[in-house]
Structure formats: C-alpha cells, structure tokens
Design a protein that fits this description.
The structure holds two protein chains of two kinds.
Chain A (H helix, E strand, L loop, with lengths): L1 H25 L4 H34 L7 H27 L3 H13 L3 H38 L6 H21 L2 H6 L10 H31 L2
Helix pairs in contact in A: 2-3, 2-4, 2-5, 3-4, 5-6, 5-8, 6-8
Chain B lengths: L3 H16 L18 H5 L4 H38 L2 H5 L15 H26 L7
Classes of the chains: A mainly alpha, B mainly alpha.
Chain lengths: 233, 139
C-alpha cells in the first residue's frame, strides 16, 4: 500500500507539474513577449499624452491669429514658442517610438512634462497673452469713446455738464489703471520658460488676478460711458 | 426688337465665313459643296429685307452714339462718386460692426465694447480652466 500511495502521489505531482508547464508555455506570454507588450503600452500612453498636448497647442496657435492689439514682436514670440513646443513634442514622440526598452520610454515620457509643462505653464501663459490683447483692445476703444464724450461735453452749451465731467474723469481713471496693469503682462508672461517651473507659476497666478481686475475695470468703464451719455441727454 | 435680328444675321454670316458652314436658315437650295461665295447667295434677297437691314444698321449706329453719350455722363457720375465715397467713412457713421470714429457717442458704441468684454469673459473662464488642469499621466 505504501508503494501504491507513493506511486499515486508521484503521478499527481507529475501531472500538476506538466499542467503548470503547459500553462506557462501556452496561456501566459513569455518574458520577452511580456516585455514587448509593456513597451508598446508605454509608447501608446506617451503618444496619447503628446497628441493631446499638440492639439491643445494648435488650438492656441489659432487663437493667437485673433490678436490685434499686441505688438508684432509679442505676437511673433508667442507663435514661435507654441510652434517650438509642437515641433519639440513631435520629435520626442518620434524618439519614443524608436525606443527599445521600457525604461527609456519612461524616461522620455517624463520629458513630456519636465521639458514642456504644456498644461501648467505654456497654455495658461499663452491664454494670458491672448486675454491681455483683448483687454488692451477694449481699453483702446473705450479711450476713443472717452475722447468723443469729451467733445460732446465741450459742445453741450447751456447744459449742466458737471456730472458728465465727473463720470468721464472716473472713466479715464479706470482706463488708465487697466492700461498700466495689463500693458506689461504680455512681456512678463512670454518670458516664462518651462525650466523655471514651478517657481514661475506665481507670475501666472498674479497675471490671472490682474486680468480679472482689468476686466472689472473695463466693465465699469463701459457703465460710466453709458452714464456720461445719459448725463448729456 | 428688330434691331437684334441683324446682329444675329451678321454673327451667323461671320461664323459661316470663318468656319465654312452654311448659314442656318439660309437658302437650303444651294448645296454646301458649292464654292460660290455667300454674297452670291444673298443677292436675290428682296428689297424689303435690305431696307430692314439698313434700318437696323442705322438703328445700331444711333444706339452706339447714344451709348457713347451715356458713357460720358457716367464718367461724370463716377467722378462724382469717386470724390464722395472715400469721404463717407471719415465723417458719417461707419458700418454696424465697427464703432463710429467721430460724432456723438451712442449706446450702440458702448455695446460694441460689451461684446469684447463678453469675449473676455469666455477667455478668462478658459484661463481658469487651463490653470485647474494638471499635466495628467504620461507613463
């Protein structure tokens, strides 16, 4: 009986061993195959990350075409920076596709963030430049309206123009505040580089606050312009 | 209306002379292979038709003279418009989309700025959204 038991146990052990070997060979990938799968997966993730960024940068390139008030130098600088990142990311993607091991792919994928900081730096900074342009354009228009309102006041003989003058002075004061605050912003934002992140994040935060304040100043100015019109009726 | 007919005839005549085709609606009795010039074909045209043709030519000349006179008048008119048109944008209110450069300020002028502020709001919201976005996964 003891011999028989030993024979049965041996047979079971042999069967289990064979089954394990079969599963290892047929159902699971070989170590080399698994490595290739991991490599391909890493490349896919990196390519998707690059594609998202390139699309976002291209959208901003389109937005920069609407810039009307900023200098040609600022507009060119912004366009150049955006195109530079698009080109750099495209080259990086090509390199990643040629990488032969997962460690290299991961190292290169890390550069998508460290070399570019597209989402946390480039896009907010470019958007800030575009918003600055809109604010300065609105300020220009309101300033011209203010000049015409002044002419209306000068020509309003026989009318009490005291309140109109006061409102117009407030309008001009608000416009001056917007101009002085927003004018330096494009250059300050364009100077920010990925290498300076996260230290330069504060500049973007301050810029956003300035632009929000500027927007309120412009809305107040529009209200004051309407007030002057009403004052002169 | 008859003035148009001779033109058509003339056109067909010239076409046929250039291309060597028979005149449409012309004398079908003459075979196409006949080397006889077209003039010979038209000689037997009745006098009435000739008179009509001459009348048409006279009418055409009259129209030409009248056209020349009109063109002289239109030159004057175009000169007048040439001097008035460029001056319009400078003084008069400009197109609806652009603010007037001068004159009394209206609410419409301020509404133009409101549109810019509206666009500004959209872009500022995008800026907020941008700044709330992280870099995400790349590995």
């Amino acid at each position: 009986m003891t011999r028989l038991r030993k024979a049965v146990v041996g047979a079971v052990a042999l069967a289990v061993g064979l089954a394990g070997g079969a599963s290892g060979a047929g159902l699971r990938p070989t170590p080399a195959g698994a490595q290739q799968v991991r490599l391909d997966a890493a490349k896919t993730v990196a390519t998707a990350a690059i594609t998202r960024r390139v699309l976002a940068l291209r959208e901003l390139m389109t937005a920069t075409k609407a810039i009307v008030r900023l200098s040609d130098a600022d507009r060119t600088a912004l366009t150049t920076q955006l195109q530079g990142q698009i080109n750099g990311l495209t080259s990086l993607n090509a390199k990643i596709q040629g990488d032969t091991d997962v460690a290299t792919v991961r190292a290169d994928a890390g550069r998508i963030i460290t070399d570019y900081h597209v989402y946390v730096l480039t896009i907010p900074k470019a958007r800030g430049v575009v918003v600055s342009d809109i604010e300065l354009n609105a300020e220009d228009r309101l300033s011209k309206l203010a000049d015409r309102l002044q002419t209306m006041i000068d020509q309003a003989t026989g009318k009490d123009t005291k309140k109109a003058k006061t409102d117009l002075a407030s309008l001009r004061s608000k416009l001056a505040t917007v101009t002085s605050a927003v004018s330096p912003l494009p250059a300050a934002l364009l100077a920010l580089q990925p290498a300076g992140y996260p230290g330069n994040r504060a500049t973007i935060e301050q810029g956003r606050t300035t632009l929000r304040t500027g927007r309120q100043g412009l809305a107040d100015s529009a209200t004051l312009a309407r007030a002057v019109i009403a004052d002169l009726k | 209306m008859r003035g148009g007919r001779p033109d058509g005839d003339g056109a067909s005549f010239s076409e046929s002379s250039v291309l060597g085709n028979p005149v449409p609606g012309g004398e079908p009795s003459h075979p196409t292979s006949t080397p006889t010039p077209m003039r010979h074909c038209r000689r037997p045209v009745p006098r009435e038709v000739r008179v009509k043709r001459i009348g048409a030519i006279v009418l055409g000349l009259a129209l030409a003279v009248a056209g020349a006179a009109c063109s002289k008048g239109s030159e004057r008119a175009s000169k007048a418009s040439a001097t008035t048109v460029p001056s319009a944008p400078a003084g008069a209110p400009a197109a609806t989309s652009t603010p007037a450069a001068a004159g009394p300020v209206t609410d419409a002028d301020v509404a133009d700025v409101d549109q810019l502020i509206h666009r500004l709001d959209t872009e500022l919201d995008r800026l907020d959204s941008d700044m709330a976005t992280g870099e995400g996964d790349v590995q």
